[in-house]
Amino acid sequence: QTIYLKDYTPTPYNVAHVALDFTLHPTATRVQSRITFTRVRAEDLVLNGEDLILKSLRVDGAEVPHELSETHLTIPAAHLSDAFTLEVEVEISPQTNTALEGLYMSGGMYCTQCEAEGFRKITYMYDRPDVMAPYEVTIHADTPVQLSNGNPTAPGCWTDPHPKPTYLFALVAGDLVATTDHFTTMEGREVTLNVYVRPGDEDKTDYAMDALKRSMKWEEDVYGRPYDLDVFNIVAVDDFNMGAMENKGLNIFNSKYVLASPETATDTDYAMIEGIVAHEYFHNWTGNRITCRDWFQLCLKEGLTVYRDQQFSADMRSAPVQRIKDVLQLRARQFREDAGPLAHPVRPEAFVEINNFYTATVYEKGAEVIGMLRTLVGPAAYDAALTLYFDRHDGQACTIEDWIQVFEDSTGRDLSQFKRWYAQAGTPHLTVTDDFKNGEYTLHLKQKTKPSAGQPDKAPQVIPIAMGLIGADGAEVLPTQVVEMSEAELTLRYELDAKPIPSLLRGFSAPVILETEQSEADRLVLLAHDTDPFNRWEASTLLAKSNLMANLTAGSAPATAWLDALTKVITDDTLDPAFRALVLALPSEDNLANACDAAGIVPDPTAIHSARKAVHLAIAQHMGEALPALIAATATPGPYSPAANDAAKRSLRAQLLRLQTRLDGGTMARAAYDAATNMTDQLAAFGCLLSAGDTTVAAAFEAQWRTDRLVMDKWFAMSVAEADPDDAVAVATALTQHADFDWKNPNRFRSVIAGMTAMNPAGFHHPSGAGYRFLADWLLKLDALNPQTTARMSTAFETWRRYDVDRQALIQEQLARIATHPGLSRDTAEMVGRMRDA
Ligand code: ARG
Ligand code: ZN
């Protein structure tokens, strides 16, 4: 059944207060609810409820007639008054809740995940974001710790005064230990901060706590928003479908994004923890205090909160490096989505299962839309608009219209055309041609967005183009200016002495695909001289791509001019090592498959894999003797610090070691592996050794880390990712028979499955079709237990149209097999259906 945005109607009853009383038991938890309602319209009361055993039901103390279905409880209007209290008791079974939605158990502890529609598996309620109420919660359990939202009033008793929708409800009970700290808000409120983990993990909480305190301070300094309760709790759980959840005052995290020690977590893990802790904390204002009217408005909270966590990470680390990493992610995940059968607008208009719309488009493109808005109105006007947004809508459940209205009212701009960014799916292509005649330089720009499912024609969008002009000698002729493109075409003219090199879309000012006729020579000038770090990196990426494509299509060796330029950047120690590492990283195999597709070439994953290896080897040979000294210069002596400076050096070191491994077969990587004192260095060397065919390192790594779940996830993933494409399915299959392959744990499942699909594309797309069968087998197996994670992992198939007819047929066969599987979940059925239709 499809739900449509246009069908939104407010509920006929409001909820004034919710009181919940839990008596926890693994298979027979009792939930007593006391919910007070007030009438808006005299209609039946229809509440959501799934997998509940109803024990008793009273309205104002009396039994009333009611109807139950698989999904709803209905009480006829005739039995309801202007204001009444509904008391219900239900029984639920957290232990057997393998979907990890609602109340479930993870490693012996009780926890919840209610977003988007998990509360309906806890008790009968309006399970939708526009119904907000204060909560009071009592928990009876024999566990040492019991937590819920808001402030504690007695052991096991919690009061949350801030009205909230069901999706922000949370409960945790178990044997947990807290790391405690304090924060004093700008208003003088003393807040107790706790990070709760399982006993034994308490030495891995420092960084999450540090990130939390920095997030709280930054939120006050940059957005003027203080925290609003006396406690803020974070809990780490091992079994979690997503990254983390912003439940009011009680954030629940996938333990992967909380636990860190130098020995077990990489620099990337630390950066992810920092970003996700900030993201969930920032939701307190953008999500919780101001929430969404309905799930179509998901980007209202997610796009804005991702934008804010990206700003935070840019402030904590290097802003240009952060921007490059964000764009790499955007292109790898969102552009891919936008180009395929799963394309949808930032604000979708229809869905079958909302969990399928927690996507890169809603999140990452949603964040880009906020960034464009800020670029268009300017930072000061953005700040003023945000202040108005918080003032006007605090405590409300809002829409994208409300958000746009705030910007229109505070800036006086008409944003009706800008709003198309929320409505049109697909990535706009921006085609640029230029000309120089009689002292006049002309830039001609055209925008066009391809048709996508349900959207045959697209109207022009407002594109902010930050641009500058560089002279042939590398000197900047025109510093950055923002040009606003709103029509399908735009011509820009400049009076100049000589033809410049345009540096367009600086800082990637809009999520579009830029198509230019730029020469390799011009790209080399930009790589060496652009004042915009993003476009310097972009030039290097385009050079890498054209050299890789030349190798792929014509077997050409990489151009010496490019190799020289690359070496120059890598050896320039005035440049941030993190930036140099990004310049050195070749475009991914998936990126190259997409580039083939864009050029009208059917991608051959095997050939792409080989071309990438050949070019990588050529870079290594070109840098040759310089590598050992360069590697030595990236040493980070002294105790491990996760801060940006040292992490930057380690990221460059890892890239250099990869190159060196191509030359020495792993001699230096072996030394690095043996000398490593932190997981970043150890894992980098581990990857090198696996790629070089080392036969002992996998067992050694496993023996060392067997008891650490998060490190073993890395071991599983790397073992498949680094396997030879011809052996990858066999390796992955063997790993699924490993005693520690707990496929019901989403992190472990993803390690092997994504190791096989996303991280080993040539193995996944093996001409035998074994990769496709492997994925389909595991999707079908997991679907019966955990539809959400299954549906998400099915997106490995979303690019099927790019490939040759044989591969297309093999994928279609697996999609058909999944689609016709008896009892397939709604989640997976929707995803597979959309992929097959398009
Ligand atoms: N709101 C959470 C976040 O962005 C994501 C939770 C999504 N969970 C889900 N089951 N759809 O941090
Ligand atoms: Zn979020």
TrEMBL record:
Enzyme Commission no: 3.4.11.2
Stretches assigned to the Peptidase M1 membrane alanine aminopeptidase domain: 207-421
Aminopeptidase N-like N-terminal domain: residues covered: 28-151
A Pfam family of this chain: DUF3458_C
GO MF, any single term: aminopeptidase activity
Peptidase M1 alanyl aminopeptidase C-terminal domain mapped to chain residues: 521-835
InterPro entries named among the record's database cross-references: Aminopeptidase_N-like_N, Aminopeptidase_N-like_N_sf, PepN_Ig-like_sf, Peptidase_M1, Peptidase_M1_dom, Peptidase_M1_pepN, Peptidase_M1_pepN_C, Peptidase_M1_pepN_C_sf
Reaction(s) catalysed (UniProt annotation): Release of an N-terminal amino acid, Xaa-|-Yaa- from a peptide, amide or arylamide. Xaa is preferably Ala, but may be most amino acids including Pro (slow action). When a terminal hydrophobic residue is followed by a prolyl residue, the two may be released as an intact Xaa-Pro dipeptide
Domain Peptidase M1 alanyl aminopeptidase Ig-like fold stretches: 426-516
Cofactors demanded by this protein: Zn(2+)
Keyword annotations of the record: Aminopeptidase, Hydrolase, Metal-binding, Metalloprotease, Protease, Zinc
Family according to the record: Belongs to the peptidase M1 family.
Stored NCBIfam families: pepN_proteo
Name of the molecule in the record: Aminopeptidase N
